[in-house]
Amino acid sequence: MKRPSTLTAYAFLYLVFLYLPVLFLPLFSFNSGTIVAFPIKGWTLDWYRKLGEQDTLIQALWNSLGVGTVVAILSTAMGLFAARAFVRYRFRGQRAAEGLVMLPLVIPGIIVASSMLVLFLFLGLKPSLLTVVLGHTFLALPFSVSILKSAFDDFDASLEEASYDLGVGVFETFRRVTLPVVSPGIIASMLVTFTVSFDEFVLAFFLSGNQPTLPVYIWSQIRFPAKLPNVLALGSILLLTSVLLLVLAEYFRRRSSASEVR
Amino acid sequence: MTDRNIIELRGVEKRYGTFLAASGIDLDLKEGEFFSLLGPSGCGKTTVLRMIAGFQEPTAGTVLIDGQDMEGVPANNRPTNMVFQSYAIFPHLNVGNNVAYGLRGKAPKGEIDQRVAEALDMVELGGLQDRGASELSGGQRQRVALARALIMRPKVLLLDEPLSALDKKLREQMQFEMRNLQQSLGITFVMVTHDQYEAMTMSDRIGVMFNGRLKQVDTPTTLYARPCDQQVASFIGEMNILPAQLLGEIGNMLSIDAAAFGRIEIERNPNVATSSKDMNIGIRPEQLEIAAEKPEDYPSTVQGTVSNAAFYGENIHYHIRVAGAEKPISVSVPNYFHTVDFKRGDAVWLGLQGASVIDLGTDTK
């Protein structure tokens, strides 16, 4: 059979095309020359060392970490209630509601960003980290809802009923049964939504005003060729962190699915 | 068992849109009784159980527990506890914390620990407090679910298909254990099951449900001997149903002309009515005599051919083709000393006594 081998070659080329540019990023971050091109002049860790000396960069990093954390908490909390309602109950307009929650995944970011900017200005909210948080929560909600929906799908509804049956009220049941059982899903959702916010550029660019998040800061630095290797070093760190967070999130998401199967 | 009613259902109905999951349910359950709701899946038995537990509100009628109207009383305030079909063991808690769950914050810690130990001893899981929920076998999960419900000292214990997840051997063992437990505690057990043998071996009384209606409520022996219609007759055990002509009646006795078996005197079944000459009778497979020679001492005998034979170990099942009967007659013979052994195609005689025939009448009374 010839076909499988051509398919394998195609798949291989596809992956190379997809990931090779990404691998250049860390490669050039160790290049001692300032020009991003082959041949590589020499190896250095200077670009990484210099990162710590830049105050505006550190400030942007803190901005991103803060926004990411708040977004993770907000969207996961909202996603938790939405996901439980979607899985547990059947109600009028359910499909429409589920579709609307997922909509941010398919609307072009630039449209969302510009319309949000108009909306916030109309409401008298100046672009700041607060507006970035609001925008990112909107963007991250579909991720937390879909992760938590799969956590609730695997959650036997009779566990909550057993708790009511044993004389425990609705709120205490939520605290003593629902939260602990879906906690791997909650952790996975927080990690993913944090990453979504941390890496997001378009909304942050429109809504951050004079408080740039890290991606916005990086974009502003790209204009200065001398700073480029520095940006590459920073980008490499972000890449590694994002991958680690997503792997961790996937681990927790799978654990939440596995816990009920036994 | 006492004569006091612990649960009373009065005209209970549950409607989902146009679908009637349960309707016209009137039922009195005695204190200390083991009661089973038996029926095929989708007959509404679980709906009735969940209305007693408080997970569903009836759309009409009243549920009284210990004389109290339960309308608007949520599940967490009812004096009932439930063993769920999935057992619903909390996966994040160990055995001890699962069993203690309902007592937390409601009793001092020392008392809780003592009651947990007692409850676990009762279900023969003594000392397993620290075992994780995921390390339990199916049978152990069931025992934990029982202990967790019984520790609350409920007035009524509700069991939703409690044995369906267990394998056959364990299921039979648990039937006896649960019956013993119920009798020593004196608590009312209400069990939902689709398994007629389970219902018959464990229950004081059984309520048979079809299509959302409670067809008959009786002891296992009465249900078996005096079913109220063909549906109940064929659901509880196996039953040969044959058409018959009513010839006459004297007091409690009916004289009939049954298909294949001819003239025979049978006892009237008080649970059915006969409104025309055309009626039905039922014969249990184990009530028929099968022999190679024409059996004596039987008022009715008929000759037939073996169309099928199945060996079950403790007994043998035959299908016998008989002139005058549409379907083959099922016969079940105990495997006494391995003496009975007919093959397909053998000519045999069937013998029938009037006392073995069940009057199925024409209507349910």
Automatic annotation (TrEMBL), chain A:
Transmembrane residue ranges: 12-40, 60-87, 99-123, 129-148, 185-208, 228-252
Record-linked Pfam families: BPD_transp_1
Cellular compartments per GO CC: plasma membrane
Principal cellular location given in the protein's record: membrane
Subcellular location: Cell membrane
Domain of life: Bacteria
UniProt record similarity statement: Belongs to the binding-protein-dependent transport system permease family. CysTW subfamily.
Protein name stated in the entry: Inner membrane ABC transporter permease protein YdcV
Source organism of this protein record: Ruegeria atlantica
Gene that encodes it: ydcV_7
UniProtKB/TrEMBL annotation, chain B:
Any one GO molecular function term: ATP binding
Pfam families from the UniProt entry: ABC_tran, TOBE_2
Record PROSITE patterns: ABC_TRANSPORTER_1 (PS00211), ABC_TRANSPORTER_2 (PS50893)
GO terms (BP aspect): putrescine transport
UniProt entry keywords in alphabetical sequence: ATP-binding, Cell membrane, Hydrolase, Membrane, Nucleotide-binding, Translocase, Transport
Residue intervals of the ABC transporter domain: 7-236
InterPro entries (alphabetical): AAA+_ATPase, ABC_SmlMolc_Importer, ABC_transporter-like_ATP-bd, ABC_transporter-like_CS, Mo/tungstate-bd_C_term_dom, NA-bd_OB-fold, P-loop_NTPase, PotA-like
Superkingdom to which the source organism belongs: Bacteria
Catalytic function, reaction form: ATP + H2O + polyamine-[polyamine-binding protein]Side 1 = ADP + phosphate + polyamineSide 2 + [polyamine-binding protein]Side 1
Transmembrane segments: none
Enzyme Commission code(s) on record: 7.6.2.11
Assigned GO CC terms: ATP-binding cassette (ABC) transporter complex
Enzyme class: translocase
Subunit structure: The complex is composed of two ATP-binding proteins (PotA), two transmembrane proteins (PotB and PotC) and a solute-binding protein (PotD).
Function: Part of the ABC transporter complex PotABCD involved in spermidine/putrescine import. Responsible for energy coupling to the transport system.
Protein name as it appears in the record: Spermidine/putrescine import ATP-binding protein PotA
Native organism: Ruegeria atlantica
